[in-house]
Q: What sequence folds into this?
């Protein structure tokens, strides 16, 4: 497994029924990590109303750990693959940011806002990458 796939396994594994259960899921995490994060974001948006707050907090605790201790490729995957997709899909599906913001740790919230600032033109891509 790559460092990105290990990070994905930890994040997805924070919600018991999302833990990788077969070799195909593990292979996807290794070969197509951005597809997996996109699918995870879509699943979270579609299932938010059925998830207990404790499950959402556990997931974002795992995200926080990856943003604090992960390598640059891991932080980019979490930010651009998961958090950015949550923002985009949430906006399209009418899920307000507040559904997620209340569960974010300090670093995850900073990253969430960096993404918003970059897309709003308040940060250049270079500044975004440097701060990530």
A:
């Amino acid at each position: 497994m790559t460092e990105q796939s290990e990070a994905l396994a930890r994040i997805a594994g924070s919600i018991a029924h999302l833990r990788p259960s077969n070799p195909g899921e593990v292979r996807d995490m290794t070969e197509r990590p951005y597809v997996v994060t996109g699918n995870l974001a879509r699943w979270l948006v579609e299932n938010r109303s059925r998830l207990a707050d404790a499950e959402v907090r556990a997931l974002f605790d795992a995200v926080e750990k990856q943003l604090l201790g992960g390598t640059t490729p891991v932080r980019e995957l979490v930010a651009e693959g998961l958090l950015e997709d949550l923002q985009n899909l949430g906006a399209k599906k009418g899920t307000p940011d507040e559904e997620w913001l209340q569960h974010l740790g300090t670093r995850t919230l900073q990253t969430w806002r960096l993404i918003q600032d970059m897309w709003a033109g308040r940060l250049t891509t270079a500044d975004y990458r440097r701060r990530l």
